[in-house]
């Protein structure tokens, strides 16, 4: 089970920059309010919690079919619809494309050079394209879909529709309309689930099954931690405590940046997924916390100096793995040279462990608050736990701040400006606003 070590957030351990138990107890009213929002299911968007009980048989059937008839699986999506699936793949199938079949590629950003390169190498007869869009109307995803559709049509004619799977809202959206018209394969994402909370829905689970990662294990981990993270008592609920400590560090100590630093390459994408969740859910009404992705040990050699001696505005959250499932030992070569001799015979695990502990200690000794989340092994069960732990923490934190953790009004505004510029009827005002701003812009042309 996931563990959360929070001693280094407390005054007793790190001195006067830490929190006191009184400060934590003082916000009981707020925490009770936040708990009631979740417990009483006051928001439809909390439907992500029910994903732990979903039936995965349709996803598995589809995955088996795709695995049998495809050499390449391309996921088209952006934001939560790409970051969640990528977090699963990178965490649990490192170097997937070199070792497993079918190869998987996630096309998120609409960079034309990337697209050209993909189109050049794919064999349409052996490629399946999964279009993932919760809303079904995100311009980037729709544009990529249109380009791939035309390409596949050109090559496969009427058979093209069979090479697409659309993962979207079961009721509305323009993609759903096309699914019906073209009789395409599709999977539903519950209408109330917001994209960034959709990783454990078919949006993430189809790719997971295709990569050979058990969706049931992901869901089981999420379900087990949910039991812990549903407890009304703050001290018994790791997700609530996680949020309360970061909330207090933000409002009392002005620590408005949270560094998310897993000690595993595979969790770098999960850290980016967390950043979207934290940023889009909390950044509202002048409130919120800026998330900052990092990875250990790499960022000890790149960012740590800033954390140690820069502005006092951060809390560092480490994610540690007890057993990496590998015991690569550093061989006994060049031992006569002292520095080589020191490393000879040690496991890479030991080196990571020493680096992580010493960083934690350095921060704590310098009174820099930090927390450590530990999982015993990096497997689907524990990755499922991490997803649900952070999702519950985020909603709870949103309610502590008093903001809606499920909307993103300014992203919608940006989407509307894009529609305006592209000439969508009804969006003339947005177009004029953007063009006026462009005119007023001052720039140097050199
Ligand atoms: O899955 P979609 O509906 O296409 O949404 C993709 C992304 O769109 C917007 O940018 C939202 O702010 C994100 O939260 C969402 O993940």
TrEMBL record:
<dbReference type="InterPro" id="IPR035482">
    <property type="entry name" value="SIS_PGI_2"/>
</dbReference>
<keyword id="KW-0324">Glycolysis</keyword>
<feature type="active site" description="Proton donor">
    <location>
        <position position="280"/>
    </location>
</feature>
<feature type="active site">
    <location>
        <position position="301"/>
    </location>
</feature>
<comment type="function">
    <text>Catalyzes the reversible isomerization of glucose-6-phosphate to fructose-6-phosphate.</text>
</comment>
<comment type="pathway">
    <text>Carbohydrate degradation; glycolysis; D-glyceraldehyde 3-phosphate and glycerone phosphate from D-glucose: step 2/4.</text>
</comment>
<keyword id="KW-0413">Isomerase</keyword>
<keyword id="KW-0312">Gluconeogenesis</keyword>
<protein>
    <recommendedName>
        <fullName>Glucose-6-phosphate isomerase</fullName>
        <ecNumber>5.3.1.9</ecNumber>
    </recommendedName>
</protein>
<dbReference type="InterPro" id="IPR001672">
    <property type="entry name" value="G6P_Isomerase"/>
</dbReference>
<dbReference type="InterPro" id="IPR046348">
    <property type="entry name" value="SIS_dom_sf"/>
</dbReference>
<dbReference type="GO" id="GO:0004347">
    <property type="term" value="F:glucose-6-phosphate isomerase activity"/>
</dbReference>
<dbReference type="Pfam" id="PF00342">
    <property type="entry name" value="PGI"/>
</dbReference>
<keyword id="KW-0963">Cytoplasm</keyword>
<feature type="active site">
    <location>
        <position position="415"/>
    </location>
</feature>
<comment type="pathway">
    <text>Carbohydrate biosynthesis; gluconeogenesis.</text>
</comment>
<comment type="similarity">
    <text>Belongs to the GPI family.</text>
</comment>
<dbReference type="InterPro" id="IPR035476">
    <property type="entry name" value="SIS_PGI_1"/>
</dbReference>
